[in-house]
Every structure is written in structure tokens, then in C-alpha cells.
């Protein structure tokens, strides 16, 4: 029941007519004369649309044309040649020689044809999107200002580094930079200040991550300039839009945190590919690109030359390549990165298993870096680091710090990944990995022992095999400073030596895929999801029974009637999601009693939450206590009409929306085009970001719950296709047919016309009337109801929930939401909570808070306690 109370607010307006003015009948179009101009062809319409885009994006058009013309004039295939390149490009030497124009000209030229194509595409897409967000003059200012600021700051850092003898600055001092991406990155970062909360956060996080990864894995001066331009763009955006909230982190929904962390894991996994594609490889983490080289030196030729930390690029190159003579070593260096990509997909789907897989791989890479590069305290003793090579020490430290940081972030935000695997499936996975690893170790030692005299470059014994076997499972890049003891010489020894690690990592990845894409490995036993759907379609439930399909629920199936109860255990409290379903209502009394016995046997406190007051007799018979927690608002679509004085506000909203050209669209999430789905995410994220408390759960659905194919959406769409508001509707069934719909998700775009929510609900009621639907539930606002209890009769739980309702009202506005729903003259059906033992009320109260606010921090809880929630 994720709904937006603010939708109830309307500006004062003059009274409108009780009935909308009837539209005049459309006149038949006059017959077109033969001389009438023909309808424009598709090509002409396309040209007109292109002309409109050019007219509304003058800077993007001009910049794209300028880059293309300059590339054609100076050489599109290989870019400008010397000395023109030196005159146009930027670097420390150019600025010291007085080329003051170079920070501007350097971001207008490309280096080759492939780069030109990518630049033109990104200019049209990213700079065009920026111009759409902040206008032409701001976009032009951002492109020039961030480029100049980033390049000037970068060149300054290079000059300082060169003067102090820093190795990277000395190595890149002579390079001349031409890089349009610097201006593009700074521009899109500036434009992020003008985007909604949804895109603002994504643009900033992803742009920053990509810029940092390029600097770490490629390390060209252009990568430094680009990162600094991104930072300049952030500052410029704040200056151009000073009212943007700066302090604090705007809250994200579970869905958004999953997207951001999955993006971060993906970018960190693809970082080594940047090092591979980079020709210069000056980045601190670029050596992994060496794993794909074809030049293999003679065995043992460099073992004596290279010492830990006292390294050159040639030394690292040769030492790494001695271990890479074969497809297996190359593959084993890539497979951990592939495992991270698989984990990233699972993160998008909210899988907790994906969190721990990504944490495990990143932690392994961090520990291996620390061990083999001598950074961890318990690593083997290494020669003292020479001050001359402190940059190498920093590079090696970063190689451990990057994956370690990613692992820590995933652990900190793991609560956002709520879909958990069963303990049995996790144990099965762990045993599969363990037995595979042990079996491959045994195979390596057996083959090595059988060929100990002839299969390697020197005779070996069991001690050699045991000392070496674990290194067969490690990516080659982490062994480049480890002394190489021996290499295989026979075909059998070579196959085993180079490929047991590959087999192991393939098993790790393949065994993890079902956790990311399947449904059978999760806490719901195999077949439960399909069984629950079948029971829901059979009927016998209430308006919120469909919420049983949401993540986080467990199920108890009654063996006597075949009905079911959806519940979740929070601490010692088993909170149900409504009443039983899937059985004849006459059998619900027995189901309730048997479920209570099941909970008691399990050591839980059974608590029926948000059940209809008609169950009061059964709870009285069981000796349980009850209290009203909400009121369901029900409309009968077959009696729907908006005539009379009481409906004045609703009619006003309908007329206002129609005059604004807004139409209602009844659809599902799966049927939406990508642009519409993105708009829904944007609206949702802006709503979540404005709250001072986390997104609520339990009986309140979010963006993820909209994706169910059975859920219907009613959208308010204007003439340009912009979505102004959205409501979602959960089905209620009887004998396989939908007999009712329940309102859940309800949000509107900030700045949309007042009354858009009233318009959507009225349109939904009209649609349901046409479809013959029996009831339309506007659901219940949690912790809000009109039934008053005298103070002297209130129980302790009444007071606790009343205090909680008062504390949450400024943030979530449940009482305002109930008042809003009363505009539609609904039937009010009390919903109650039933519990067996009043002594357990403190535990039940804590369980309810944790169910609705599972991510509530101690600081936020303290704010609630003092009434600032």
C-alpha cells in the first residue's frame, strides 16, 4: 500500500459546474479536393522532426557539426599529425610554451576513426540530454568551463609531480592530449544538478566511477583531466542551481541501491578491460592488461632480474608472461571478473547470495594482492621499499584497496538485498565448491607425483607440489612478483598445471547462476510460489491477500483445508499478511486456530495483522486480544457516480486533468516502453529521496512490486507522453476470475497539476464499472482510522501504535491519506490486529516497527522517539 498522502492536497479553486460540459459532436471532415496537398511522406515527417530537434538543441548540433568538420579537415582516420597535433593538443609543455588556447582546442579533436564515431554518438546523446535539462547557454558554459578547469588543474598536478620526481608525472610529461570526452563528462556532471533525484544520483555515481576506473587502469593524462572535469562539473552544477540540497545523502529505495551497487560492481569488474584496451598502461592497476599479450619470453630468463618492488614495466611484463603460456592462465585471470559480473546481475534482482558472492571474490582479490605484494603484515618478508619506487608501493596498495572497499560497501548495504537463499541450497553450493577444489588439488598432486621426474623443468617432490598447488587457482596477475619454481614440460602436466584453476572458477560461476536467475533456490520451498498463486486465484482471501506474493513472506499451508497463511517472522513475532486465503471462508476459523498452534510449536508469537473485524468471534473464542489498526476504504464500482455536492472536489480534479490534456492509461509494467518505465522509477525515487525515514515495507509495496504481470497500473499521461501520476492495483480472485482490485502504489510527479490522484482513482473506478468488477478497495492507511477509543479504555498497544502513528505522520501522512480517501465516499471496514498474550505487546510493537521499517537506523529511531520522525 505504498501511497502518497501529498496527493490529497489541492490549491483552492473556484467551484466548477456539477457536470462536465458536454463536448460538441465532431463534424464530419469535408471531402478533400483532388488539388489538396498530399499527406507528407515518412521521410518528410522525419526531416521535420529532425529539424525540431536541431532547433531545440542548437549547442549540441553546433558542437557535433564542429567536431565532425574538424576531424574531416585534419584526418579522421589517425587524427591530426605533428606539428598540428602539438599546436592543437594540450600538455605541460604546450601551456609552458604559451599555447593558452590548447585547453579549448584539445576537446574538439579526436585521435582516430573509432574514437570519432564514439564521440559523435556520445555528444548527441549525453550533451543533447544535458541541453534538454539545462538549456543551451548553460550547456555551452559547462562544456568549456569544465574542460578548461579540469585540464588546467591536471596540468598543474603534472608539473608539481615532475618537479618532485614523481614517476607517473615524469613518464607522461611528454604526452600531448586530444580528448573530447573531458568536455562531455564535465557537461553531463553539471547537468546532473538539473535532473530529478532518480537520474541525478545515477549520473553522478556512474560518471565518477567510470572516471576513476579509467584513471586507475589506463592512467593517461586525459584520464586525470577527465576526472577533474567531472569534479568541476559537480561544483558548477551547484553554482548554477544553488537551491539543490547539498548536505546529507538523499535517501534511496531498495531498488535504486541495488542498481547503484550493481553498477559499481560491474564497473570495477570491467576496469581490467580498460587496462587491456589502453595502449599506454600508465594506470596504477594497468598490469592486468599484460595477461593478454602474445609475447612470451624464454623460461627463467628474468627470474633473477626482477625483485619485489624494485620493478620496471619491462620486468613486470616479462615476469607475468612466463606464467601465461597457454589459454588456461589467461582464462583464470578473467573468470573472477566474470564471477563479479554474474554477482552484479544477482544484485539487480535483490539476491542476498549475490552480495556474499561479490564480497567473497572482492575480499579474495584484496587478500591476494596484500599477500603477494607484501602489503599485509603477515605476508612474507620483502626487501625494504626504496623511496624511488614509492609509486609502485601505492599502486600495489590500491590493487588491494579497490576490491576491499567494494566488499565493505556491499556488507554495509546488504540489508537492501532482501531475497534470501535457503540454508540448504547455500550448503549445497558450499559443498560443491569445496569438493571440487579438493578433487582438483588431489588430481594436481597425483599427476605431479606420477611425472615428478620428467614432467617439469626440474625434478620435484611432494613438498614442491603442496607449496605450488594453491597458486594454480590464483589469477596470474597476482603471482607476477612470486618466485617461479618450475614449469610443466609434458602435455599432461601442462594441461593439469594450467587448467585446474580454470575448472574450479567455472564451477564457482556455473553453480552460482541458479541463485541469480532461478526461483527454486530461495527460502520459499520449490513450488510454493506457484502454489500460492493457484490458491489466490481460487479465492477465499481478502483485499490484501495478493501481498502474499511479495518477497519476505513465508507460507503455512493448512493440511486440513488446503488454505494458506502468509506470514513473516520478526524476532519472535510471526506477523501475518492479512487473513487466510485459498479456502472457503467458513473454514478460516479452523485455519486460524491451527496456524496459531503451528506458531506456538515453533516458539513464535502469532499475530494476525490487518484482518477484517468479522473474525472477532473466533479470536474471542480463543481468548485473544484485538485492537483496530486501520480502516479499509471500499468502493462498489457498479454504484459509481460523481453526482451531488459531496463529489465536488473529485469532479473538479477530473475536469482540471481533462483541460490539461491528461489521459488515463490502464496497463501493466511489462507492457510499458522503456521510456515510461524510466519515468516511473524517476517519480518513485524523488518521492523516496524527500523522506527523512527509510522506505517502508510489509504491506506497503514499492517499485519492485509493480513488475508482477498480474498487477495493473493506471497512469496519468499528458499529451507529450510525460507521466504525471501512477497508481497500481492488486487483483482479488474468485474461481480464477478477478472480482476486485486493491490500490497499492500511488505517487505523482512533483510539480504535476493538483488533483491528478483523484483523476486516476475516478478513471479506475469507471474502468472497473465497465469491467463488471464487484469491489474496488482503496486499501487502508496503516495506523490510521476513524474509530476512536476513550483514553481510559486504551490498551498499552493502543498507546504505542498511536504514538507511532503520530511520529510517522509528518513523514508519511497516513492520517492525511485516510482523509483523502474519504473524498470518494467509501465504505469503511475496520481492520484489526489479534494477539494471544498482552505481555508480549512490547515484542509485537518492535516487530511491527521492524516489519514496516526494516532499515531504520538508531539515529532515526531516536528521532522518532523524540517526535522528530
Automatic annotation (TrEMBL):
UniProt GO MF annotations: aminoacyltransferase activity
Location(s) in or outside the cell: Cell membrane
Stretches assigned to the Phosphatidylglycerol lysyltransferase C-terminal domain? 533-835
GO cellular component terms?
plasma membrane
Name of the protein? Lysylphosphatidylglycerol synthetase-like protein (DUF2156 family)
Instruction: Tell me which UniProt keywords the record has, alphabetically.
Output: Cell membrane, Membrane, Transmembrane, Transmembrane helix
- Species, as recorded: Leifsonia shinshuensis
Chain ranges passing through the membrane: 58-79, 99-128, 140-160, 172-195, 260-277, 327-348, 355-375, 395-413, 429-450, 496-517
Q: Which InterPro entries match?
A: LPG_synthase_C, PG_lysyltransferase, Rhomboid-like_sf
A Pfam family that this protein carries is LPG_synthase_C
Q: How does it sit in the membrane?
A: Multi-pass membrane protein
Q: Which domain of life is it from?
A: Bacteria
Q: Which Gene3D superfamilies match?
A: Rhomboid-like
Q: Which GO terms describe its biological process?
A: phospholipid homeostasis
Amino acid at each position: 500500500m505504498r501511497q502518497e498522502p501529498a496527493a490529497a492536497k489541492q490549491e483552492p479553486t473556484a467551484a466548477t459546474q456539477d457536470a462536465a460540459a458536454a463536448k460538441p459532436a465532431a463534424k464530419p471532415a469535408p471531402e478533400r479536393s483532388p488539388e489538396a496537398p498530399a499527406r507528407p511522406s515518412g521521410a518528410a515527417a522525419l526531416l521535420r522532426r529532425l529539424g525540431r530537434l536541431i532547433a531545440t538543441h542548437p549547442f549540441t548540433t553546433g558542437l557535433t557539426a564542429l567536431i565532425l568538420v574538424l576531424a574531416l579537415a585534419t584526418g579522421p582516420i589517425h587524427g591530426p599529425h605533428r606539428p598540428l597535433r602539438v599546436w592543437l593538443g594540450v600538455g605541460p609543455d604546450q601551456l609552458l610554451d604559451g599555447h593558452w588556447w590548447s585547453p579549448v582546442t584539445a576537446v574538439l579533436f579526436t585521435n582516430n576513426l573509432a574514437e570519432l564515431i564514439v564521440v559523435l554518438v556520445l555528444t548527441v546523446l549525453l550533451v543533447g540530454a544535458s541541453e534538454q535539462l539545462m538549456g543551451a547557454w548553460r550547456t555551452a558554459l559547462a562544456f568549456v568551463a569544465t574542460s578548461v578547469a579540469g585540464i588546467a588543474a591536471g596540468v598543474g598536478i603534472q608539473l608539481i609531480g615532475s618537479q618532485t620526481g614523481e614517476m607517473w608525472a615524469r613518464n607522461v610529461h611528454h604526452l600531448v592530449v586530444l580528448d573530447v570526452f573531458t568536455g562531455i563528462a564535465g557537461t553531463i556532471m553539471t547537468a546532473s544538478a538539473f535532473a530529478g533525484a532518480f537520474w541525478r544520483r545515477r549520473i553522478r555515481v556512474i560518471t565518477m566511477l567510470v572516471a576513476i576506473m579509467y584513471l586507475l587502469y589506463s592512467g593517461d593524462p586525459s584520464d586525470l583531466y577527465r576526472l577533474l572535469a567531472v569534479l568541476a562539473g559537480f561544483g558548477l552544477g551547484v553554482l548554477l542551481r544553488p537551491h539543490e540540497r547539498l548536505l546529507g545523502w538523499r535517501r534511496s529505495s531498495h531498488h535504486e541501491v541495488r542498481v547503484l551497487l550493481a553498477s559499481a560492481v560491474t564497473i570495477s569488474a570491467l576496469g581490467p578491460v580498460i587496462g587491456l584496451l589502453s595502449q599506454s598502461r600508465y594506470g596504477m592497476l594497468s598490469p592486468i592488461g599484460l595477461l593478454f599479450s602474445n609475447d612470451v619470453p624464454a623460461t627463467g630468463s628474468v627470474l633473477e632480474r626482477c625483485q619485489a618492488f624494485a620493478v620496471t614495466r619491462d620486468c613486470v611484463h616479462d615476469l607475468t608472461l612466463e606464467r601465461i603460456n597457454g589459454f588456461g592462465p589467461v582464462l583464470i585471470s578473467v573468470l573472477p571478473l566474470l564471477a563479479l559480473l554474474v554477482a552484479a546481475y544477482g544484485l539487480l534482482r535483490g539476491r542476498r547470495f549475490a552480495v556474499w558472492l561479490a564480497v567473497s571474490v572482492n575480499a579474495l582479490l584484496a587478500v591476494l594482492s596484500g599477500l603477494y605484494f607484501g602489503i599485509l603484515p603477515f605476508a612474507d618478508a620483502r626487501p625494504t621499499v626504496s623511496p624511488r619506487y614509492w609509486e609502485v608501493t601505492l599502486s600495489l596498495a590500491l590493487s588491494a584497496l579497490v576490491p576491499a572497499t567494494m566488499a565493505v560497501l556491499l556488507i554495509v548495504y546488504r540489508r537492501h538485498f532482501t531475497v534470501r537463499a535457503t540454508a540448504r541450497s547455500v550448503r549445497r553450493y558450499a559443498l560443491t565448491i569445496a569438493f571440487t577444489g579438493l578433487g582438483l588439488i588431489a588430481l594436481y598432486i597425483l599427476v605431479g607425483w606420477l611425472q615428478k621426474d620428467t614432467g617439469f623443468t626440474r625434478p620435484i617432490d611432494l613438498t614442491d607440489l603442496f607449496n605450488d598447488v594453491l597458486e594454480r587457482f590464483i589469477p596470474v596477475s597476482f603471482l607476477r612478483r612470486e618466485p617461479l619454481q618450475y614449469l610443466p614440460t609434458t602435455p599432461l602436466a601442462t594441461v593439469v598445471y594450467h587448467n585446474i584453476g580454470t575448472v574450479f572458477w567455472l564451477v564457482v560461476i556455473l553453480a552460482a547462476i541458479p541463485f541469480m536467475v532461478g526461483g527454486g533456490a530461495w527460502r520459499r520451498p520449490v513450488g510454493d510460489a506457484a502454489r500460492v498463486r493457484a490458491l489466490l486465484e481460487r479465492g477465499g482471501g481478502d483485499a490484501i491477500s495478493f501481498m502474499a506474493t511479495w518477497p519476505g513472506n513465508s507460507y503455512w499451508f493448512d493440511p486440513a483445508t488446503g488454505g494458506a497463511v502468509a506470514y513473516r517472522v520478526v524476532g519472535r513475532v510471526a506477523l501475518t499478511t492479512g487473513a487466510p486465503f485459498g479456502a472457503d471462508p467458513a473454514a478460516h476459523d479452523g485455519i486460524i486456530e491451527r496456524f496459531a498452534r503451528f506458531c506456538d510449536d515453533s516458539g513464535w508469537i502469532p499475530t494476525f495483522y490487518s484482518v477484517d473485524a468479522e473474525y472477532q468471534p473466533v479470536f474471542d473464542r480463543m481468548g485473544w486480544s484485538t485492537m483496530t489498526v486501520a480502516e479499509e476504504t471500499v468502493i462498489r464500482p457498479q454504484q459509481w457516480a460523481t453526482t451531488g455536492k459531496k463529489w465536488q472536489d473529485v469532479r473538479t480534479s477530473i475536469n482540471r486533468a481533462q483541460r490539461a490534456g491528461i489521459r488515463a492509461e490502464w496497463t501493466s509494467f511489462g507492457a510499458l516502453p522503456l521510456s515510461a518505465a524510466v519515468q516511473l522509477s524517476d517519480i518513485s525515487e524523488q518521492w523516496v529521496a524527500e523522506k527523512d525515514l527509510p522506505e517502508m515495507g510489509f504491506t506497503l509495496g514499492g517499485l519492485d512490486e509493480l513488475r508482477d504481470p498480474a498487477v495493473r497500473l493506471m497512469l496519468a499521461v499528458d499529451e507529450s507522453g510525460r507521466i504525471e501520476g501512477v497508481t497500481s492495483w492488486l487483483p482479488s480472485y474468485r474461481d480464477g476470475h478477478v472480482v476486485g482490485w486493491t490500490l497499492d502504489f500511488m505517487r505523482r510527479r512533483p510539480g504535476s497539476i493538483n488533483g491528478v490522484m483523484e483523476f486516476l482513482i475516478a478513471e479506475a473506478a469507471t474502468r472497473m464499472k465497465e469491467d463488471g468488477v464487484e469491489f474496488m478497495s482503496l486499501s487502508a492507511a496503516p495506523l490510521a482510522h476513524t474509530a476512536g477509543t476513550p483514553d481510559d479504555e486504551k490498551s498499552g498497544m493502543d498507546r504505542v501504535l498511536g504514538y507511532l502513528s503520530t511520529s510517522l505522520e509528518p513523514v508519511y501522512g497516513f492520517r492525511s491519506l485516510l482523509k483523502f480517501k474519504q473524498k470518494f465516499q467509501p465504505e469503511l471496514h475496520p481492520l484489526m490486529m489479534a494477539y494471544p498474550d498482552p505481555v508480549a505487546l512490547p515484542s509485537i510493537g518492535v516487530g511491527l516497527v521492524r516489519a514496516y521499517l526494516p532499515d531504520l537506523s538508531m539515529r532515526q529511531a531516536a528521532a522518532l522517539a523524540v517526535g522528530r520522525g
